[in-house]
């Protein structure tokens, strides 16, 4: 299976998971010049900006490590672009999340990790 196919399947699994938690999906693969947020959803008064990683931990690398300072900064910048485009979101509390899809198709949700 190609890396792109695996990533798309992981994003679909993450989307289904968020929907099961009561989220409303607003955007998927929200792209701006500086970066991308995989899934943007809303739940209660929280705007969730989620990075999805489909990763096999057997390789000794854990997805939380992939959210290095540069990636976090890019996600924040894309979030601020979103607020400029849709000012109605200003009142929502932001939550930057990681959704890890394991090799066994399990979902691990890390909420508000930065």
Automatic annotation (TrEMBL):
Recorded GO MF terms: nucleic acid binding
Entry-linked InterPro entries: Restrct_endonuc-II-like (IPR011335), tRNA_endonuc-like_dom_sf (IPR011856), UPF0102_YraN-like (IPR003509)
Domain of life of the organism encoding this protein: Bacteria
UniProt xrefs under SUPFAM superfamilies: Restriction endonuclease-like
Pfam family, one: UPF0102
Family of this protein: Belongs to the UPF0102 family.
Protein name listed in UniProt: YraN family protein
């Amino acid at each position: 299976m190609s890396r792109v196919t695996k990533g798309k399947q992981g994003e679909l699994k993450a989307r289904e998971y968020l929907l099961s938690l009561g989220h409303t999906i607003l955007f998927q693969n929200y792209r701006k010049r500086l970066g991308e947020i995989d899934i943007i959803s809303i739940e209660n008064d929280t705007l969730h900006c989620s990075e999805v990683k489909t990763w096999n931990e057997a390789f000794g690398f854990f997805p939380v490590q992939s959210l290095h300072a540069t990636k976090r900064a890019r996600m924040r910048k894309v979030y601020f672009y979103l607020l400029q485009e849709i000012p109605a979101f200003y009142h929502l509390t932001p939550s930057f999340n990681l959704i890890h899809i394991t090799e066994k198709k399990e979902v691990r949700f890390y909420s508000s990790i930065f």
